[in-house]
Amino acid sequence: MDALSEDLDLLPATRRALRHRVAVAQREGRSPSLVAAVVRGGEVVWEGSRTCVEGHGPDGNVQYRIGSITKTFTAVLVMRLRDEGLLDLSDPLGKHLPGSGADEVTIAQLLAHTSGLAAETPGEWWERSPAALRPELADVLGEEPFKHVPGTRFHYSNPGYTLLGSLVEALRGKPWEEVLRAEVLEPLGLGRTSGLPQAPHAGGWAVHPWADVMMPEPSEDLGLMAAAGQLWSTTGDLARFARLLMRGDDRVLSAESVREMRTSVAPPEPGSADLGYGLGLQLADQGGRRLAGHGGSLPGFVAGLWFSEADDVAAVVLANCTSGLPASTVAADLVAIVSEAEPRIPEPWRPFKEDDQVPLELCGPWYWGTSAQVLRLNQDGSLELSPVGATGRPARFRAEPDGTWTGLTGYYAGETLRAVRREDGSVSHLDLASFVFTREPYDPAAPVPGGADPQGWRGIG
Fold this sequence. Notes:
By secondary structure, this protein is an alpha+beta fold. It has helices at residues 12-29, 69-83, 107-112, 137-141, 158-172, 176-188, 226-229, 235-247, 255-261, 327-341; strands at 33-40, 43-51, 64-65, 205-207, 214-216, 232-233, 274-277, 282-286, 289-298, 301-308, 313-319, 364-368, 371-377, 383-387, 395-399, 405-407, 416-421, 427-432, 435-438. It starts with 11 loop residues before the first helix and ends in a 23-residue tail after the last strand.
C-alpha cells in the first residue's frame, strides 16, 4: 500500500513518478518496508511508502536506523566546536584528546576520512556484536590502527568517527548523545531522532538472497561507536536536517559552515563516480547535477539522504532490510525526478538597492598577462572571476571587512584578492596570490613582474 501526501505543490505526474520509483525500489530490493520524503524550498512536498504488510504502511513519524548518516550529525557538532573557537580543524587530535592512539591525525582528516585509520574495528563485526567488547578507545582502534599514512588518501573509517564522538565528549564534558540532543536535535525540532528506538519504529530484517523469506536482525547498542552509526530517525526529522545542510540555521550551524562541509576535501577513489568527501558529507555527480548527502546501513536497515543545492531539492529514503535496496541511489533518483520534471523557478532579477556599496571599479575585463578574465559582481555581493575563452581559473570571492576578497572556490580558494590603488584612489591593478591583473595586457603602467618590453606590442617586421 502507499502513504502519499496530497501536497499540491508538485504536479500529479511528478507525484506519480516518485510513487513509482519507491514502489519499484521496494519490490526489486525486497524490503519489508520503505518510506521516503522529498523536500523542496525547505518544506516537505511529498511523502511515500511501500510495505509488504497490507494496511500497515509507515509514515514520516516511524523510526528506522540510519547508520552512517549519524556521521553527518557528529560532523555538525565538531563544526560547532570549531566555530566557537574551541578547536581548529588543523589541530592534531592529541591536543584535545591525548592518548587515543591516533594523536597525530588532524580533526579535518578524521572528518574527511583521510586519517589513514582502519575502516573497521578489530575483532568481531562491531555492528552485530555487543559494545561491551569495545569498552575503551584502544579496543576500537586495536594495536595497528593505521592502514595508510595520514593525509595521503581517502579511506573510509568508522573508528575515525568514534574518535570524533569522544572529542565532542571531551570538550563538552557530557555524553555525545546528550550534546547532540541539546545542540542539534532540540533546536531543529528533531524529536523523533534518538540513540535507542522509540515507538513507533520499524524492525530490522535480513532477507534471504535466494528465497523470499526473512529473519529478524539483532539490534545492538553501539557504545563507543555510537557517533559513527547509532541513530534512529524518521523521514520527517531527516527532512528538517537536510534543510540545515542546504541552508544553514544560526541556531545550530551557519550557512557558511554547512557550505564548508559540502566542499570536497578528500579526492574520490580512482574510477569512482563520486566527487569525493567533504567534512562529514559524501559528494556525488548525477549526470552533471552536484549532490551532497550521506548513505547509511546497519544490519536490518539501509538509509539515504541526498540533496542538490542548485535545485533546492532533497530526498530521504529509509528501509528495513540488510541489503539489496540501494537507498542512497533511490534518494538521488527522487531528487532527479523532481528537479528535472519541475525545474527550480529562479528568483526575479533585481538591481542593487540605492544605498548599497557597489564596487563597479572592480567589474569588467582584466588581464593576467595575456589571459583575458572578467570580474562580475553577483547579487549576493560576491565576485565571480571567469576566463574569456576555454582556459582559465574560474573562482568566486567573498568580500571581507578590510576591503579585500577571499577566494571560495577553485584554484584561488582561500587566497586573497586585493585592489591596489594609486595615490588618487583609483585602482591600478589587482593582486591575487602574487598574480597581477591589469586593465590592459601587460600594462606598462602597472607593476607587472618582469616588466613590459619598452617597444610595446608590435607585429613581425
